Request: fold
Amino acid sequence: MPGFEVFGEEEKKEIMDVLDTGVLFRYEFGEQRKDVYKVREFEEKFSSYCGSAFGQAVTSGTAALKVAMAAMGIGPGDEVITQGFTFVATWEAIFDVGAVPVFTEVDETLNMDPADLEKKITDKTKLIIPVHMLGAPARIEEIVAISEKHNIPVLEDTAQAPGAKLNGKALGSFGTCGTFSFDAVKTITTGEGGMIITEDEQLWRNMSEYHDHGHDHAVNPGGRGGEGRSFIGFNYRMMEIQGAIGLAQLAKLDGIVASHQKNKRALKDVAAKIPGVTFRTILDEDGDSASFFAFFLPTKDAAEKVNTILRDNNAGAIAFGENTWHFYPAWEHLLAGKTLAKSEWPFAVDGKRRVVYDPKALPQSAALMDRLLVYQVPVNLSAERLAEMVAALEEAAGY
Ligand SMILES: Cc1ncc(COP(=O)(O)O)c(C=O)c1O
Reply:
Protein backbone atom coordinates (compact mmCIF):
# COMPACT_ATOMS: atom_id res chain seq x y z
CA MET A 1 0.00 0.00 0.00
CA PRO A 2 2.85 2.30 -0.74
CA GLY A 3 2.09 5.87 -1.87
CA PHE A 4 5.19 6.84 0.12
CA GLU A 5 7.35 4.94 -2.37
CA VAL A 6 6.53 7.42 -5.13
CA PHE A 7 6.62 10.60 -3.06
CA GLY A 8 8.67 13.15 -5.03
CA GLU A 9 8.91 16.46 -6.85
CA GLU A 10 5.22 16.54 -7.80
CA GLU A 11 4.15 16.47 -4.14
CA LYS A 12 6.73 19.14 -3.28
CA LYS A 13 5.44 21.40 -6.05
CA GLU A 14 1.85 21.07 -4.85
CA ILE A 15 2.91 21.79 -1.27
CA MET A 16 4.81 24.88 -2.42
CA ASP A 17 1.61 26.27 -3.98
CA VAL A 18 0.18 26.26 -0.46
CA LEU A 19 3.27 27.56 1.29
CA ASP A 20 3.50 30.39 -1.24
CA THR A 21 0.12 31.66 -0.08
CA GLY A 22 0.69 30.88 3.60
CA VAL A 23 -2.93 29.72 3.88
CA LEU A 24 -3.05 26.32 5.58
CA PHE A 25 -6.80 26.33 6.31
CA ARG A 26 -9.29 24.96 3.78
CA TYR A 27 -11.86 27.72 4.33
CA GLU A 28 -11.75 31.54 4.34
CA PHE A 29 -8.66 33.78 3.76
CA GLY A 30 -10.26 34.93 0.46
CA GLU A 31 -7.69 37.41 -0.97
CA GLN A 32 -4.61 35.88 0.57
CA ARG A 33 -5.14 32.39 -0.82
CA LYS A 34 -5.06 33.54 -4.48
CA ASP A 35 -7.69 30.99 -5.45
CA VAL A 36 -5.67 28.05 -4.10
CA TYR A 37 -8.14 25.53 -2.60
CA LYS A 38 -6.20 22.28 -2.49
CA VAL A 39 -8.55 20.28 -0.25
CA ARG A 40 -11.57 21.27 -2.34
CA GLU A 41 -9.72 20.40 -5.55
CA PHE A 42 -8.64 17.05 -4.09
CA GLU A 43 -12.27 16.29 -3.14
CA GLU A 44 -13.46 17.12 -6.64
CA LYS A 45 -10.73 15.18 -8.43
CA PHE A 46 -10.87 12.13 -6.13
CA SER A 47 -14.66 11.79 -6.30
CA SER A 48 -14.62 12.26 -10.06
CA TYR A 49 -11.82 9.63 -10.37
CA CYS A 50 -14.20 7.25 -8.53
CA GLY A 51 -17.17 8.28 -10.71
CA SER A 52 -19.00 9.79 -7.72
CA ALA A 53 -20.71 13.16 -7.50
CA PHE A 54 -19.42 14.33 -4.10
CA GLY A 55 -16.26 13.96 -2.01
CA GLN A 56 -15.68 14.98 1.59
CA ALA A 57 -12.08 15.08 2.80
CA VAL A 58 -11.41 14.45 6.49
CA THR A 59 -8.48 13.85 8.83
CA SER A 60 -8.25 10.05 8.58
CA GLY A 61 -9.91 6.90 7.29
CA THR A 62 -11.29 6.33 10.79
CA ALA A 63 -12.75 9.85 10.81
CA ALA A 64 -14.23 9.14 7.38
CA LEU A 65 -16.13 6.16 8.81
CA LYS A 66 -17.29 8.21 11.80
CA VAL A 67 -18.36 11.25 9.76
CA ALA A 68 -20.19 9.08 7.21
CA MET A 69 -22.08 7.23 9.96
CA ALA A 70 -22.91 10.45 11.81
CA ALA A 71 -24.22 11.94 8.55
CA MET A 72 -26.37 8.86 7.99
CA GLY A 73 -27.91 9.19 11.44
CA ILE A 74 -26.41 6.01 12.91
CA GLY A 75 -26.28 6.07 16.72
CA PRO A 76 -27.16 4.37 20.03
CA GLY A 77 -29.61 1.48 19.73
CA ASP A 78 -28.41 0.63 16.22
CA GLU A 79 -26.48 -2.41 15.05
CA VAL A 80 -23.93 -2.08 12.28
CA ILE A 81 -22.76 -5.22 10.50
CA THR A 82 -19.16 -5.47 9.38
CA GLN A 83 -16.71 -8.32 8.87
CA GLY A 84 -14.47 -9.95 11.47
CA PHE A 85 -11.40 -9.58 9.27
CA THR A 86 -10.73 -5.85 9.07
CA PHE A 87 -8.61 -3.23 10.78
CA VAL A 88 -9.79 -2.24 14.28
CA ALA A 89 -10.73 1.22 12.95
CA THR A 90 -13.90 -0.12 11.31
CA TRP A 91 -15.51 -1.19 14.57
CA GLU A 92 -13.91 1.57 16.66
CA ALA A 93 -15.84 4.05 14.51
CA ILE A 94 -19.08 2.09 14.97
CA PHE A 95 -18.68 2.23 18.75
CA ASP A 96 -17.74 5.88 18.52
CA VAL A 97 -21.13 6.84 17.10
CA GLY A 98 -22.75 4.81 19.88
CA ALA A 99 -23.82 1.83 17.75
CA VAL A 100 -22.87 -1.82 18.25
CA PRO A 101 -20.72 -3.74 15.76
CA VAL A 102 -21.91 -7.18 14.63
CA PHE A 103 -19.32 -9.30 12.82
CA THR A 104 -19.73 -11.59 9.82
CA GLU A 105 -17.52 -14.30 8.45
CA VAL A 106 -15.30 -13.67 5.44
CA ASP A 107 -15.06 -16.11 2.53
CA GLU A 108 -12.21 -16.79 0.11
CA THR A 109 -12.44 -13.23 -1.21
CA LEU A 110 -11.17 -12.42 2.32
CA ASN A 111 -14.16 -10.08 2.50
CA MET A 112 -17.71 -10.19 3.81
CA ASP A 113 -19.51 -13.49 3.21
CA PRO A 114 -22.94 -12.50 1.85
CA ALA A 115 -24.54 -15.72 3.12
CA ASP A 116 -23.44 -14.93 6.67
CA LEU A 117 -24.54 -11.30 6.24
CA GLU A 118 -28.11 -12.49 5.56
CA LYS A 119 -28.06 -14.47 8.81
CA LYS A 120 -26.85 -11.53 10.90
CA ILE A 121 -29.44 -8.96 9.80
CA THR A 122 -31.94 -8.09 12.55
CA ASP A 123 -34.54 -5.36 13.13
CA LYS A 124 -31.77 -3.32 14.74
CA THR A 125 -29.44 -3.44 11.71
CA LYS A 126 -29.17 0.09 10.39
CA LEU A 127 -26.01 -0.13 8.27
CA ILE A 128 -23.80 -2.70 6.54
CA ILE A 129 -20.05 -2.03 6.21
CA PRO A 130 -18.26 -4.43 3.89
CA VAL A 131 -14.50 -3.81 3.87
CA HIS A 132 -12.52 -4.21 0.65
CA MET A 133 -9.55 -5.73 2.44
CA LEU A 134 -6.08 -6.01 0.99
CA GLY A 135 -6.79 -4.05 -2.18
CA ALA A 136 -9.47 -6.25 -3.75
CA PRO A 137 -13.26 -6.28 -3.92
CA ALA A 138 -15.81 -7.73 -1.59
CA ARG A 139 -18.83 -9.38 -3.26
CA ILE A 140 -20.24 -5.88 -3.29
CA GLU A 141 -22.95 -6.43 -5.91
CA GLU A 142 -24.43 -9.31 -3.89
CA ILE A 143 -24.09 -7.32 -0.66
CA VAL A 144 -25.86 -4.28 -2.15
CA ALA A 145 -28.64 -6.56 -3.48
CA ILE A 146 -29.14 -8.00 0.03
CA SER A 147 -29.09 -4.51 1.55
CA GLU A 148 -31.73 -3.29 -0.90
CA LYS A 149 -33.96 -6.25 -0.07
CA HIS A 150 -33.82 -5.21 3.60
CA ASN A 151 -33.76 -1.45 2.94
CA ILE A 152 -30.49 -0.97 4.82
CA PRO A 153 -27.75 1.35 3.47
CA VAL A 154 -24.22 0.17 2.66
CA LEU A 155 -21.03 2.03 3.55
CA GLU A 156 -17.98 0.55 1.81
CA ASP A 157 -14.80 0.76 3.88
CA THR A 158 -12.40 1.21 0.97
CA ALA A 159 -9.45 2.32 3.12
CA GLN A 160 -7.26 -0.39 1.63
CA ALA A 161 -8.47 -0.26 -1.97
CA PRO A 162 -8.29 3.11 -3.71
CA GLY A 163 -7.76 2.57 -7.42
CA ALA A 164 -9.52 -0.82 -7.34
CA LYS A 165 -12.58 -1.56 -9.48
CA LEU A 166 -15.18 -4.23 -10.01
CA ASN A 167 -16.33 -4.60 -13.61
CA GLY A 168 -15.07 -1.10 -14.40
CA LYS A 169 -16.78 0.62 -11.45
CA ALA A 170 -14.65 2.06 -8.63
CA LEU A 171 -14.85 0.36 -5.25
CA GLY A 172 -16.45 2.76 -2.81
CA SER A 173 -19.03 3.85 -5.39
CA PHE A 174 -21.42 0.88 -5.09
CA GLY A 175 -22.97 1.69 -1.72
CA THR A 176 -24.64 4.79 -0.29
CA CYS A 177 -21.13 6.02 0.42
CA GLY A 178 -17.55 4.80 0.44
CA THR A 179 -14.69 5.77 2.74
CA PHE A 180 -10.94 5.88 2.07
CA SER A 181 -7.76 6.28 4.11
CA PHE A 182 -4.62 8.15 3.07
CA ASP A 183 -2.54 7.30 6.12
CA ALA A 184 1.21 6.77 5.95
CA VAL A 185 1.10 3.22 4.51
CA LYS A 186 -1.84 3.44 2.14
CA THR A 187 -1.90 3.17 -1.68
CA ILE A 188 -1.95 6.94 -1.86
CA THR A 189 -0.98 8.93 1.20
CA THR A 190 -1.37 12.42 2.62
CA GLY A 191 0.47 11.42 5.82
CA GLU A 192 -2.88 11.25 7.60
CA GLY A 193 -6.18 11.78 5.86
CA GLY A 194 -9.39 10.29 4.58
CA MET A 195 -12.24 10.81 2.12
CA ILE A 196 -15.90 9.90 1.79
CA ILE A 197 -17.58 9.67 -1.61
CA THR A 198 -21.30 9.65 -2.30
CA GLU A 199 -23.95 10.39 -4.91
CA ASP A 200 -26.31 11.79 -2.29
CA GLU A 201 -26.09 15.58 -2.03
CA GLN A 202 -27.96 15.85 1.27
CA LEU A 203 -25.72 13.20 2.81
CA TRP A 204 -22.65 15.08 1.58
CA ARG A 205 -24.02 18.33 3.06
CA ASN A 206 -24.49 16.56 6.40
CA MET A 207 -20.88 15.34 6.25
CA SER A 208 -19.53 18.72 5.25
CA GLU A 209 -21.31 20.45 8.15
CA TYR A 210 -20.71 17.73 10.74
CA HIS A 211 -16.96 17.58 10.03
CA ASP A 212 -16.69 21.36 10.57
CA HIS A 213 -18.41 21.98 13.94
CA GLY A 214 -21.82 22.21 12.25
CA HIS A 215 -20.95 25.28 10.10
CA ASP A 216 -23.67 25.45 7.43
CA HIS A 217 -21.24 26.93 4.86
CA ALA A 218 -24.01 29.19 3.51
CA VAL A 219 -22.82 32.47 2.02
CA ASN A 220 -23.70 35.29 4.42
CA PRO A 221 -22.49 38.83 5.11
CA GLY A 222 -20.89 37.82 8.40
CA GLY A 223 -18.48 35.35 6.75
CA ARG A 224 -17.57 32.20 8.64
CA GLY A 225 -18.43 33.75 12.00
CA GLY A 226 -21.94 34.50 10.74
CA GLU A 227 -22.70 30.96 9.54
CA GLY A 228 -25.62 29.08 11.05
CA ARG A 229 -25.76 25.58 12.56
CA SER A 230 -28.41 22.92 12.03
CA PHE A 231 -26.90 20.30 14.34
CA ILE A 232 -23.86 19.70 16.52
CA GLY A 233 -20.66 18.61 14.84
CA PHE A 234 -16.96 18.15 15.46
CA ASN A 235 -13.64 19.00 13.82
CA TYR A 236 -12.35 16.51 11.27
CA ARG A 237 -11.02 19.09 8.77
CA MET A 238 -8.20 18.23 6.36
CA MET A 239 -5.34 20.74 6.00
CA GLU A 240 -4.42 22.39 2.71
CA ILE A 241 -0.98 20.76 2.71
CA GLN A 242 -2.62 17.35 2.93
CA GLY A 243 -4.96 18.24 0.07
CA ALA A 244 -1.95 19.34 -1.98
CA ILE A 245 -0.13 16.05 -1.39
CA GLY A 246 -3.32 14.16 -2.19
CA LEU A 247 -3.56 15.82 -5.60
CA ALA A 248 -0.03 14.76 -6.55
CA GLN A 249 -0.59 11.23 -5.24
CA LEU A 250 -3.94 10.86 -7.00
CA ALA A 251 -2.26 11.70 -10.31
CA LYS A 252 0.05 8.72 -9.69
CA LEU A 253 -2.64 6.24 -8.63
CA ASP A 254 -3.13 4.48 -11.97
CA GLY A 255 0.64 4.11 -12.34
CA ILE A 256 0.88 2.67 -8.81
CA VAL A 257 -1.82 0.10 -9.60
CA ALA A 258 -0.12 -0.86 -12.90
CA SER A 259 3.19 -1.46 -11.09
CA HIS A 260 1.45 -3.46 -8.36
CA GLN A 261 -0.22 -5.65 -10.96
CA LYS A 262 3.06 -6.34 -12.78
CA ASN A 263 4.92 -7.14 -9.55
CA LYS A 264 2.09 -9.26 -8.17
CA ARG A 265 2.03 -11.32 -11.38
CA ALA A 266 5.75 -12.04 -11.04
CA LEU A 267 5.26 -13.29 -7.46
CA LYS A 268 2.13 -15.26 -8.28
CA ASP A 269 3.81 -17.11 -11.17
CA VAL A 270 6.46 -18.52 -8.87
CA ALA A 271 4.17 -19.09 -5.84
CA ALA A 272 2.02 -21.26 -8.13
CA LYS A 273 4.80 -23.86 -7.96
CA ILE A 274 4.18 -24.50 -4.24
CA PRO A 275 2.33 -27.83 -3.95
CA GLY A 276 -1.28 -27.42 -2.80
CA VAL A 277 -1.24 -23.63 -3.05
CA THR A 278 -4.48 -21.82 -3.96
CA PHE A 279 -5.10 -18.14 -4.40
CA ARG A 280 -7.48 -15.67 -2.85
CA THR A 281 -10.63 -15.26 -4.95
CA ILE A 282 -10.23 -12.03 -6.91
CA LEU A 283 -13.57 -11.12 -8.49
CA ASP A 284 -12.01 -8.93 -11.18
CA GLU A 285 -8.30 -9.40 -11.93
CA ASP A 286 -8.17 -6.25 -14.09
CA GLY A 287 -9.74 -4.19 -11.31
CA ASP A 288 -7.51 -5.55 -8.54
CA SER A 289 -5.39 -2.74 -7.07
CA ALA A 290 -2.91 -5.59 -6.43
CA SER A 291 -1.49 -3.89 -3.37
CA PHE A 292 -1.40 -7.33 -1.72
CA PHE A 293 -0.82 -10.89 -2.88
CA ALA A 294 -2.69 -13.46 -0.79
CA PHE A 295 -2.44 -17.24 -1.07
CA PHE A 296 -3.60 -20.26 0.91
CA LEU A 297 -1.86 -23.48 1.83
CA PRO A 298 -3.97 -26.62 2.33
CA THR A 299 -3.47 -26.69 6.12
CA LYS A 300 -2.29 -24.50 9.00
CA ASP A 301 0.72 -26.75 9.41
CA ALA A 302 1.66 -26.35 5.73
CA ALA A 303 1.27 -22.57 5.96
CA GLU A 304 3.58 -22.47 8.98
CA LYS A 305 6.18 -24.67 7.27
CA VAL A 306 6.12 -22.60 4.10
CA ASN A 307 6.38 -19.33 6.02
CA THR A 308 9.31 -20.66 8.07
CA ILE A 309 11.19 -21.32 4.83
CA LEU A 310 10.20 -17.91 3.45
CA ARG A 311 11.35 -16.19 6.67
CA ASP A 312 14.65 -18.10 6.66
CA ASN A 313 15.16 -16.78 3.15
CA ASN A 314 14.41 -13.15 4.04
CA ALA A 315 10.98 -13.20 2.41
CA GLY A 316 8.57 -13.93 5.27
CA ALA A 317 4.89 -13.38 4.53
CA ILE A 318 2.26 -11.81 6.78
CA ALA A 319 0.31 -14.53 8.62
CA PHE A 320 -2.98 -12.91 9.59
CA GLY A 321 -3.67 -15.79 12.01
CA GLU A 322 -0.78 -14.35 14.08
CA ASN A 323 -1.30 -10.63 13.38
CA THR A 324 -3.20 -8.99 16.22
CA TRP A 325 -4.67 -5.90 14.52
CA HIS A 326 -6.90 -7.33 11.82
CA PHE A 327 -8.78 -10.37 13.07
CA TYR A 328 -11.57 -10.79 15.59
CA PRO A 329 -10.21 -13.33 18.15
CA ALA A 330 -7.00 -11.28 18.53
CA TRP A 331 -8.83 -8.13 19.70
CA GLU A 332 -8.44 -8.80 23.42
CA HIS A 333 -9.61 -5.29 24.36
CA LEU A 334 -12.84 -5.81 22.40
CA LEU A 335 -13.41 -9.29 23.85
CA ALA A 336 -12.75 -8.10 27.41
CA GLY A 337 -14.72 -4.89 26.92
CA LYS A 338 -11.82 -2.65 27.97
CA THR A 339 -12.52 1.07 27.88
CA LEU A 340 -11.27 4.19 29.65
CA ALA A 341 -14.83 5.24 30.44
CA LYS A 342 -15.69 4.68 34.11
CA SER A 343 -19.25 3.90 33.06
CA GLU A 344 -17.82 1.12 30.82
CA TRP A 345 -19.37 2.73 27.73
CA PRO A 346 -19.53 1.56 24.94
CA PHE A 347 -19.65 -2.01 26.27
CA ALA A 348 -22.08 -1.34 29.13
CA VAL A 349 -24.98 1.01 29.84
CA ASP A 350 -26.13 1.72 33.41
CA GLY A 351 -23.71 -0.92 34.69
CA LYS A 352 -25.11 -3.65 32.42
CA ARG A 353 -23.14 -5.13 29.51
CA ARG A 354 -25.01 -4.38 26.29
CA VAL A 355 -22.65 -6.46 24.19
CA VAL A 356 -20.29 -9.43 24.71
CA TYR A 357 -18.16 -10.99 21.99
CA ASP A 358 -17.24 -14.68 21.71
CA PRO A 359 -13.75 -15.28 20.25
CA LYS A 360 -14.94 -18.52 18.62
CA ALA A 361 -17.86 -16.90 16.81
CA LEU A 362 -16.25 -16.90 13.34
CA PRO A 363 -14.88 -20.41 12.69
CA GLN A 364 -14.96 -20.12 8.88
CA SER A 365 -12.82 -16.96 8.98
CA ALA A 366 -10.46 -18.47 11.55
CA ALA A 367 -9.89 -21.52 9.34
CA LEU A 368 -9.06 -19.25 6.40
CA MET A 369 -6.69 -17.07 8.45
CA ASP A 370 -4.77 -20.15 9.63
CA ARG A 371 -4.00 -21.15 6.03
CA LEU A 372 -3.38 -17.67 4.68
CA LEU A 373 -0.07 -16.03 3.72
CA VAL A 374 0.10 -12.48 2.36
CA TYR A 375 2.73 -10.27 0.76
CA GLN A 376 2.41 -6.53 0.54
CA VAL A 377 3.24 -5.78 -3.12
CA PRO A 378 5.70 -2.92 -3.58
CA VAL A 379 5.45 -0.34 -6.35
CA ASN A 380 9.20 -0.28 -6.78
CA LEU A 381 10.44 -3.86 -6.82
CA SER A 382 14.12 -4.01 -7.71
CA ALA A 383 15.43 -6.90 -9.80
CA GLU A 384 17.58 -7.96 -6.81
CA ARG A 385 14.67 -8.04 -4.36
CA LEU A 386 12.44 -9.84 -6.85
CA ALA A 387 15.18 -12.45 -7.40
CA GLU A 388 15.46 -12.91 -3.62
CA MET A 389 11.69 -13.39 -3.23
CA VAL A 390 11.53 -15.75 -6.21
CA ALA A 391 14.37 -17.84 -4.77
CA ALA A 392 12.60 -17.99 -1.39
CA LEU A 393 9.29 -19.06 -2.98
CA GLU A 394 11.11 -21.69 -5.06
CA GLU A 395 12.76 -23.05 -1.94
CA ALA A 396 9.33 -23.09 -0.20
CA ALA A 397 7.95 -25.18 -3.06
CA GLY A 398 9.94 -28.08 -1.59
CA TYR A 399 8.35 -27.84 1.90
C1 LIG B 1 -9.88 -1.32 6.62
C2 LIG B 1 -9.46 -0.05 7.26
N1 LIG B 1 -10.39 0.83 7.67
C3 LIG B 1 -10.06 2.00 8.23
C4 LIG B 1 -8.74 2.34 8.43
C5 LIG B 1 -8.42 3.61 9.15
O1 LIG B 1 -7.67 4.50 8.42
P1 LIG B 1 -6.78 5.60 9.15
O2 LIG B 1 -5.50 4.94 9.56
O3 LIG B 1 -6.56 6.62 8.09
O4 LIG B 1 -7.55 6.14 10.28
C6 LIG B 1 -7.73 1.47 8.03
C7 LIG B 1 -6.29 1.80 8.25
O5 LIG B 1 -5.44 0.95 8.23
C8 LIG B 1 -8.09 0.24 7.43
O6 LIG B 1 -7.18 -0.64 7.03
About this structure: Residues 43 and 55 are 5 Å apart (CA to CA).
